[in-house]
Amino acid sequence: MEHPVTTATVELRHFVHDDLPQIRQTLLDVHADAYANDMTEFDERFPWFVDHWGGNAGFACVIGYDGGEPVGFAYGAPATPGREWWREHVNDPPADDSTFSLSELMVRPKWRKTGTAERLHAALLEDRPEALAVLLVDPNHPKVQTLYEAWGYRKVGNRQPFPDSPNFAVMLHGLPA
User: Fold this and answer.
1) 5 with 110: CB under 8 angstroms?
2) What's the CATH number where 141 sits?
3) pLDDT at 40
């Protein structure tokens, strides 16, 4: 029986747009392991998403390492003002509507249920200047949505950004000032 991994040994490292060439393959490898038994045609386009998000000058990424082994990551970028995913679902937006779009949070199977995802999420958002964070959650993963709700997100609507993508739950969180 495999013993759960503790997060005490997971080192978190921060990366930015200019680091993408050095971390791109790591992101792809973690994704391949995380979705090894559940890869959809939509998931197979992940390299495009890495390049799309990583191409944003404000791209931010945190990768967790256990020894030298990557165990998970979280990344995103600031939303374009006025074009945020959540805007169409909220009647009365806050005065400060600056938004960080969390694109991916992924942990390899061996490190799931160890607190690693929460640490990656917190490290990615802890020093962000934006007032809000937004993300999309696949409705086929209700436990993931419940986890985000426990972290302070709330569902504000649904969005299907691509014809072959799920009709994601749009979740919004007010970041601490």
Assistant:
1) yes
2) 3.40.630.30
3) 62
pLDDT tier for residue 176 given thresholds of 50, 70 and 90: low
Residue 96 lies in a domain: yes
In a domain, 152, yes or no: yes
Q: What is the pLDDT of residues 33-80, one digit of tens each?
A: 988 777 565 567 789 899 999 999 999 999 999 999 999 999 999 999
116 domain-assigned: yes
Q: Is 20 left (phi over 0), alpha (psi -120 to 50) or beta?
A: alpha
154 forms beta bridges with 172
Domain range enclosing 156 = 7-174
**DSSP 8-class letter at 5:** P
- 1 assigned to some structural domain: no
Q: What is the pLDDT of residue 1?
A: 38
- Tens digit of pLDDT for each residue in 107-129? 999 999 999 999 999 999 999 99
- What whole-number distance in Å separates Cα of residue 128 and Cα of residue 65? 22
If one counts the domains in the chain, the total is: 1
3-state secondary structure of 38: coil
Order the strands of the 69-78 sheet from edge to edge.
Answer: 10-16, 60-66, 69-78, 99-107, 132-137, 168-174, 154-159
> Maximum Cα–Cα distance for the chain, whole Å?
52
